[in-house]
Structures are given as structure tokens and as C-alpha cells.
Amino acid sequence: MPRRRIGFWYRFAAVICKPPLVVLIKRDWRGMENIPADGGFITAVNHNSHVDPFAYAHYQYNTGRVPRFLAKSGLFKKGFVGAAMRGTGQIPVYRESTDALSAFRAAIDAVERGECVAFYPEGTLTRDPNGWPMTAKTGAARVALQTKCPVIPVAQWGCNELLPPYTKKPRILPRKTHHVLAGPPVDLSRFYDKEMTAELLKEATEVIMAAITRQLEEIRGEKAPETPYDPRRERIEQRRRTQAASEPAPVRTQGKQAEGQGT
């Protein structure tokens, strides 16, 4: 299936975004040979800075296979931003849908048309204290299992040093390096043609995230934690700690006090 033309809007966005990216960050880009030359596929990418969608889009733009990101459907209705989102072929996600698969129908259609759909499986910036990928949502796995398309794991590092997650103040100097490493397709064949249960999707998602994490380990030259950071588990633990801290200390009875005084 032929690749889609990049088109005016994507080239226009590149003209605006590439110059500041080239000035602000150096590039260490590897694994472009793993980006399919044609046909539909998914890239699954870790997310650790508000800057990295632009830097990663620059990486993939240079492969000739531009990414179609998933974005809130409301963004497609707002003036120039909406026109740019539509023009660059970004994919609206209708979060109000109660059917988890139909929420990604546009992504499935794009893959079946031969597009590249870029997923941030974590759904938001990682909350891992050391920037490692955390537990992920199952959207990428849903689309991958529905379409049986290649899933390319992509790890990136460096934009988080330019603009750390959950901060607004960039650290421009010294100039940072954007490292990207795309790996070979993740083997999800053992999950094909099975009932798409929550357990199956969770397992397939863990396989995808493990591949991304291995790529990031190679970039960083160190091992990731054995268990990925789980924000849901952390919230539960935080509530427990807060509840324990707010509970009054047990009061010793007079009988116990007297017994203690008599010994």
C-alpha cells in the first residue's frame, strides 16, 4: 500500500517547528531502518516532556512516514488549531464514547489506509521519579490486535532535560541532546484471533511497554526498575499513608498504666 503524501499542512508545520528544535536540541537518532517503508503501522513512544511530541514528530518526519497523533476531538473544532489538526491528519479521540474500541475507530481506519499512528501508551507524562516508562493504557494494543499491524517501539530521552515533566521553565543551556531509538516490531502474534479481554489487552500492553523500556535502557545505559511505576497503585498507597497519619495514636488505658507502674 503506498505511503500517504506529506501534504501542505505537515510541511507548513515543519517550516514553523523545525528551526527552533534544531537550535535548542542536538540529535542522536537511531533505528530509522525499523520504520516500515509502506503500509499501516503503529509507533508506541514513551512520554517524558511536553516538548517531546514535537521532537519525535521531527524524527519521524525525516523518515518520510509522518505520524498521526491521537488528540482530543475538541481540538479539531477550534480555529487555526483545528484547521492544522485536520490538515496534518491528526486523529480525533472521542473520549465520551462508552465503547473503548469505537473510541479508536479513526486510528484503526488510518492504519488500514496505510498510515502511521503514533501512540503514547502511558496516556500522559510519566510520573516515574526517574523518568522510566510507567504502566500504560491499552489503546495501542487494541488497535494493534484489531489490525494486526506492526508495532514499532520507540524510546526517547533528552527533551525531559530541556523541559522536565510537570514544569514550565526550560533549561536551555547547556544544549541538550534528543536521543531516539526505534526498535524492530514487537511480536504480538500470540495474542491474535483471541477474545479481546481486559487481561489479554493488559498482557499485550505490557509486552509493548517492555520493548520500549529495553530501548530506553540502551539509550541511558542503565537498567530500569523491575516493576514499572503504577500511578494508580501509588495513589492507593498515598491515601493509606494519609489515612494512617491522620488517625489518632492509641490511648493506653489506666489499667495498663497501673500495671506498668507496678512492675
From TrEMBL:
Residues 219-240 have a biased composition (Basic and acidic residues). InterPro entries: Plipid/glycerol_acylTrfase (IPR002123). SMART domains: PlsC (SM00563). The keyword Transferase applies. GO terms for molecular function: acyltransferase activity. Residues 41-159 form the Phospholipid/glycerol acyltransferase domain. Pfam families: Acyltransferase (PF01553). CDD domains: LPLAT_AGPAT-like (cd07989). Keywords: Acyltransferase, Transferase. It comes from the Bacteria. Residues 219-263 are annotated as: Disordered. The keyword Membrane does not apply. PANTHER family: 1-ACYL-SN-GLYCEROL-3-PHOSPHATE ACYLTRANSFERASE, POSSIBLE ACYLTRANSFERASE. This is Lysophospholipid acyltransferase family protein. It comes from Streptomyces viridiviolaceus.
